[in-house]
Amino acid sequence: MKTKFLSLVIIITFFYQVKAQTPVKLSTDQFRFIEGPAWDGSEFIYFSDIPDKKIYKYSVTNNTFSLAFDNNADGCNGLMFDNDSNLIVCGFRAGNIARRKIDGTLIETLHSEYNGKRFDNPNDICIDKKGGIYFTDPTRRNPPFQSVRSVYYITPAGKLTVATESGFTFPNGVLISIDGKHLFVNDSDTHDIYKFDINQKDGTISNKTVFATITNANDGEVKSQADGMALDTEGNLYVASKLTIQIFNKNGTKTGAILFPEQTTNCTFGKSDKKTLFVTATKNLYSVDLIKRGFQHPFDLPE
């Protein structure tokens, strides 16, 4: 049953127009640690419960939850639908990237290693218009399987390349800009959100700059815990970080923040008008109605 947290507020600046509504709690603490929300374009928000290694779906019409499939062998984290409406799944436990039908049937394991060593913990994912796949591979393993924390790219033809090894300690959220020309990557161990130029020929990224800075540093912690991200059609970036979704305009200026009672992990827009932001936050799924219309990868990217 939906529960509104009237004590929560959306902090809004005058120059960012959103509906003055509080987050709506859609679940009842039945999950353990959820991540990777993905809108199927019609009815369901799919998401991962990482410790349980299961993928669930939420019906936006019936307000009900059900098990989509058990991914016990590979584990799960970031999810995104490809151009054929199959799920690309970050195999958090097994260290792979796989393509699956929505009932969990394995179509193919795309990649599971680099330089002869398995990936550590594939975390988040974004798909470009051509079907190429960016993903992050952070870890807290000691020692790790991979010596460098990297952002990888799987070409539309299926070839694995390193998009960048550019000085990350915990690369996490990854997202392509609405014009398809740039890649946003955040690092959970810093407060910066980075912006790269995308090479349109081979998918590699370069020209790393700081796009924006998470502003919860005043809690005394070095780590922002920046996590998954979403974009609206105007290029505003929504970033999960600790107890907030922080909002930045296309110039990197912070324009608002939505507060939550538990740590946020990721977000995506959904429903028919794509004006509802769905947020995974540890044990629960939340929704927030906004005025802005969401941008859905890869379908809304330009040709």
TrEMBL record:
Domain of life, per lineage: Bacteria
PANTHER family, alphabetized: LACTONASE DRP35 (PTHR47572:SF4), LIPOPROTEIN-RELATED (PTHR47572)
Residues annotated as domain SMP-30/Gluconolactonase/LRE-like region: 35-282
Keyword terms: Hydrolase, Signal
Matches recorded under SUPFAM superfamilies: Calcium-dependent phosphotriesterase (SSF63829)
Segment forming the signal sequence: 1-20
Organism phylogeny: Bacteria, Pseudomonadati, Bacteroidota, Flavobacteriia, Flavobacteriales
GO molecular function: hydrolase activity
Name of this chain's protein: SMP-30/gluconolactonase/LRE family protein
Entries under Gene3D superfamilies matching the protein: TolB, C-terminal domain
Short name of any one Pfam family annotated for the protein: SGL
